[in-house]
Amino acid sequence: METMKRPYQILAIFLLLVSCFVMRESLELKYYTELGPGPGFFPIWLSVLMAVLAVVLFAKVTFRQVEPIPEDFFQTRSGYLRALAICLAWIWATLMLERLGYRLTVMIFFPFLLLTLGRVRWFVIVLFTVLGSLAVHIIFTKLLAVVLPDGPFDFIFEPLDSLFQSLDSVPGEVLGED
After folding, report:
1. 70 and 87 in a common domain
2. Pick the residue with more confidence: 147 or 169?
3. 0.70 cut: is pTM over it?
4. DSSP per position, 36-82
5. CB hemisphere CA count around 90 (13 angstroms)
6. How large is the average pLDDT for residues 86-110?
């Protein structure tokens, strides 16, 4: 009976290679700035953590008993097409992020991704799309002061931006702050 040993070992090696790539790219970024951790701080430590986990996974599946391959491990043609569609959607989102801007890219990407996964209710799709595109944009740009890419169609979001701009200008007494 075949086990999951070989697929897990391949996965561990792949994760180790990805972590090495992320580490190499992260070393190009500043590790620490005058204000604190720089843009390279988190990628470096995340790549170290991923490398450690990859080595642990490899050692675990190599030296311990591993479960047998499930009968449905090799999926149907539709499963492979679904996986390919998800990979292509990630590539598309990466290429369009600078061209369309964060909000519009995510507003197209999330529904496609959730519909491709299947069996997702419409309100979950709407919720994730709104939270993922609009709420995350507001949190990152307004609260965390992180610059996210704007696109040529961001004028669509001007009413929403002006609403949050007006909420920013509300005095603290009205909001119950001291």
Report:
1. no
2. 147
3. no
4. EE-TTHHHHHHHHHHHHHHHHHHHHHHHS--PBPPTTSS--HHHHHH
5. 5
6. 92
